[in-house]
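Example protein
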Amino acid sequence: TVAREIIKRLPNENIVYFGDTGRVPYGSRSRQILTRYARQDIRFLLRQGADVILAACGTVSSSVLEDFAGECPVPLLGVVDGAVKKAISLCRGGKIGIIGTETTVNSGIFERKIHEIMPEAKLKSIATADTLIVTSIQKMSNIRDEDGGLNASDIEIINGKRLVFIVDEAHRST
């Protein structure tokens, strides 16, 4: 997860993790609701003394986060730029798939940012039901061979194809 990566890279920092599990999925919410939720979440984190806020929600990062840039007194970061840079660094032949919530896909932010860096990229975006995304990623983390490890032959086939996917709203990484 994003929190795990931050802790690994900044082990001496105090981390306040706020996972808004009571109001997920965000991807099917209106822009007005997303703005209200993001504002409430930012205020909560500021009251906790946050020096930096990272919105790890792909839907918020892609749709309303930029609206708060001028009014937030601390650096406010999202996950879109990092996902774009990683996808571009991994792809061969410029093929990148974007699987996301309707809100994220309709924002066009991934396409815009990828084409700014890699104009020749071939993109395919698919919006799907939020619960399908979360459930699918969680199930993927259970793919194991008989010895309990990842199936090496499947990984080798996938690696050879080098199709890169950006998965929005996964809430969990494998």
Notes: The CA atoms of residues 97 and 174 lie 18 Å apart. The helical segments are 2-9, 31-47, 58-63, 80-90, 102-107, 109-117, 130-140, 152-161. Strands lie at 53-54, 76-77, 95-100, 122-127, 164-167. The longest helix spans residues 31-47.
